[in-house]
Amino acid sequence: MDGNVTFLGEFSKKLVTNTFFNFLGRCWSFILTLLLTPYILSRLDVHDFGTWVLMTIFISAFNPGQVPLFDLGGVFMKYISEYQTYDDYEGINRVLVCGLFFYGLFGIALTSSGVLLERPLFHLFHISDGASSAYVLVLIASAISNISAMLLSVFKGIQRMDKSNSLEIGLSILNAAGTIVFLRIGWGIFGLAANALLNAGLAVIVTWWAVRQMIPKIEMSVNLDKTLLRDMLAYGVKMQVSSIGGLVSFQVPKLIISRFLGTAAVSFYEVSSRLALFMRALPLVMISALIPATSELRARKDRDRILQTYLMASKYVAMLTVAMAAFLITEARSVLTLWLGRGFESSVVLVQILAIGFGANILGGPASQTGAGVGRPEYDMRGTVLLAVLTPILGIALVHSFGAAGAAAGTTLAFCAATGYLLVAFHRDYVRNSVKTVLETIYLRPIAGGVFGALAVKGFHTLMPQLSVWDSVRYMIPMKIAVDFGVFAASYLVVLVVFRQVTAIDWNNFLSLISFGLQLLRHPSRMLSDEN
């Protein structure tokens, strides 16, 4: 199948519009996280920060780019998108009632079991007993946040990412303000937990009000549809396996490090993880609208467009992901110093290792999201079972010999293995061709370009040794990164053009995207009304 694909008319405009707003929301969230991290570190020592990182595993829905503790958002998006295709608002009401019932029971179970497990967990991961009160607040916040995430899925399901992201941006501002206030008055970890609880409750109120304003026909006044609940859970179990696999890969390494190296070491891993997640954010946004989009195409029985959309997403995600991962690996020391100053040099190698693993994870994203959208989440489910098994095994095996770098390496190796399995299974069973085709036409040349670009930067440093002086002066680092980026980008693009990864079709797609983006910025309300 030809990898040179074009935008697909009105359908692609909707996909691009939703991706654009997801991009704004995700960028805002990550920028806010990057700005807040130095402030939090200035108010907490590395032990307290490491403790808070462990606690945020329970409220990871508040941490951009990380996997929620128990998330059925993809299930809600799929069902709401299909009901919205035929204006079946009673069906959407039934979906939300099922979700509220499920998350109510789940929240009670989560909080109760968390309280019962507090002592053994604190002992196992070397958490101070002084964090007990904050831990309880964190559990309650986690239970409540699932409900607001479900309500946000209404906007995502009807493909109004502008609404969902505007809400999330507004709530993130309140969350950031609360973080600053509670830390400034000296409440420490307890203040962060109290802030999380306040924001979780407020998020439910605000999102429900926004849903009712947007779609007055949504009332959740219908009775519980037990048959629909069973169907949703049957579908959701497969997706939840994927979610748990993601939870294991992103969060368990921190638990392993805490257990074997202490909470202070968690801080160094966490800042590395946040930086690698920032690298991962933009490519992730590019595929964030695939589930509702492909669900709509599946409802219309348009397999050809599903495959075209998958190939287009895979090609552009690969070019962007490889470029960002290769550049971050090259510039890890400079970026960390610019962001946090001196004292985090040990995190450089962690960033470089995690950039490879997180990048590999994104390369399988189009297959994962397309499979979920067409009702075949088992591809991703099986891959993440492998991920969930390998991550702790490799992490524990390697942390003894290599410390935190070993835990990071275990995560990266697990990501690579799981992504490889996912691509092989998806192409064999759904696309019905060999994965070798997509590896040769989509992934190989960007990887070669990334290696060449990194080598070009190293060679440029050999010719211009004074750049190493810039790297030692914090206010000079942005100039050094900018120069390196120019060298890297030029070298990377040369490889893509010479080996025809970037063609005239891609150039036309890029121009069309720019034109559409400018129209969207000039007349957002008109463009949104046209899409709906």
Strand content: under 5%
Could you describe the largest sheet, including whether it forms a barrel? none
Head-to-tail CA distance between termini: 32 Å
Amount of helix? over 70%
| Number of structurally distinct domains | 1
Task: Describe the structure in your own words.
This protein is mainly α and 532 residues long. The chain has one domain (9-433). Helix content is 82%, strand content 0%. The chain has 21 helices and no strands. α12 runs antiparallel to α13 and α15 (378-402) runs antiparallel to α16. The longest helix has 38 residues, at 303-340. It is globular and about 70 Å long.
List the helices and strands and how they pair.
Layout: H1 9-43, H2 46-55, H3 73-85, H4 89-116, H5 118-124, H6 132-157, H7 161-184, H8 188-214, H9 226-261, H10 263-286, H11 290-299, H12 303-340, H13 348-363, H14 365-373, H15 378-402, H16 404-431, H17 435-463, H18 467-470, H19 477-498, H20 504-522, H21 524-531
Q: What's the short story on this structure?
A:
It is built from 21 helices and no strands. The chain has helices at 9-43, 46-55, 73-85, 89-116, 118-124, 132-157, 161-184, 188-214, 226-261, 263-286, 290-299, 303-340, 348-363, 365-373, 378-402, 404-431, 435-463, 467-470, 477-498, 504-522, 524-531.
Q: Which key terms come to mind for this protein?
A:
532 residues, disordered N terminus, single chain, 21 helices, 0% strand, globular, mainly alpha
